[in-house]
Predict the 3D structure of the following.
Amino acid sequence: MGKKYEVPNLPYAYNALEPYISEQIMKLHHDKHHVAYVNGANAALEKLEKSRNGEMQIDIKAVLRDYSFNFGGHKLHSLFWPNMAPPGKGGGKAGGKIADKINSDFGSFDKFKTQFTEAAKTVEGSGWALLLYDQESDQLVLTQIEKQNFMHLAGLPILLGLDVWEHAYYLQYWNDRSKYVEAWWNVVNWDDVDQRFGKERV
Ligand code: MN
């Protein structure tokens, strides 16, 4: 067995993203939802180990699915927190190399923002909109994830992710996902996105 998964601390205070994302949402989202995914992923790995040791009978398909779901939740939320920064530090337009790449791959920052917003608004049910970097074609690509399983991501590095599960906005925006997505742009941490891009593109 390797190390257990752990919930990372938020890189800012719970209320730091206000008024765009409320303290109440951040507390619930980080301390309850993310914690549940970490516990779920650790529990699934423990079940697999016990099964190998003959201490427990498991439905391996169900356990692996459970692992993928919870691991996906853990990884995506671990990305989501540093992808955001308090208004002023976050928000605005991208800078650095990622800005140039967005301009060349999407035509302009505004075209990128419009298409990412569309992707986020139209995720069916719970899920995520993601900006990924595909090394093979040397381009930035968008994807939607339904729920949070990682099974079909094919290993492309994620630069920017937006959680559009209702738990991410319902307490503040009710069922108005569009309003939440528009507000979220004010807290995007472009320095973090640029750093992630720099690591992937040599
Ligand atoms: Mn979430």
About this structure: Helices lie at 23-52, 60-80, 96-106, 109-121, 170-173, 177-184, 190-200. The pocket of manganese (II) ion is lined by residues 29, 33, 77, 163, 165, 167-168 (CB under 6 Å). The chain has a mean pLDDT of 95. Strands lie at 127-134, 139-146, 158-163.
